[in-house]
Amino acid sequence: MSGLEQRISLWSRVCDPLNTIVRNMRGASNLAATWIVTCMNSQPRGSAGFGSTNRESSARSESWEVRIPSGDVTLSGELAIPENAVGVVLFAHGSGSSRHSPRNQFVARTLRESGIATLLFDLLTADEEPEDALTGRLRFNIGLLAQRLVTATQWMANHPQGRRSGLGYFGASTGGAAALVAAASLGSGIDAVVSRGGRPDLAGDALARVGSPTLLIVGERDELVLRLNEQAYAQLPGQKELAVVPRATHLFDEPGALEEVARLAAQWFRRFLRLH
Question: What is the DSSP secondary structure assignment for residue 118, as one 8-state letter?
């Protein structure tokens, strides 16, 4: 049994402690620490290891609409696999969003052009979304979102295309927190995590248990979220990087900003995804 399968088989013993962790999350605003911020230029730069990528062939991919059982609900998603994929990245969307998020779709296309398969799925069901639009109750239930992300990871690990593939997470906004909590629970089963404009502070105590190489991407002008990411960065124990995209705000709407996010994410995943 692989390391990921062993972790997943224990998930029934993880759910309750995970929800307890989320309820007892401690704020990081008073943390005094030193960290290194890597500022990335807004214009794409060449990166080692990418020269050999055949973008024309890897851009061709097959896609399927999928249904992922998760407890009492079923989550809808889309799995797209390019030729000779080096791994699979699962997307955890942000609050009030879905698998159809145009920003996540853009990043996903870039990943597939780099030879990485993608699984975009809804963290909430069609019945839950109207309720959440009114109350906002579910979008901040990080324990629930992380549990569903782990369930989707189990589904992907059992898929014929995912049994030996490297697995990574791309999280946006609150999805960034869910990705980090899920990565902390699955340990070595997750090769890499990327957070875009995320709220890693909402991962609470789970931050200290994230062993997966983690890239936090934040806009320079997204000042509050940047401070929260700096504080969370200081708590991550493993390989990590904080990339600040110049002149970008929270949604990365500025010219070239989202392209830079996608380039950084593809570079990170190509660096760390591996066959198992």
Answer: E
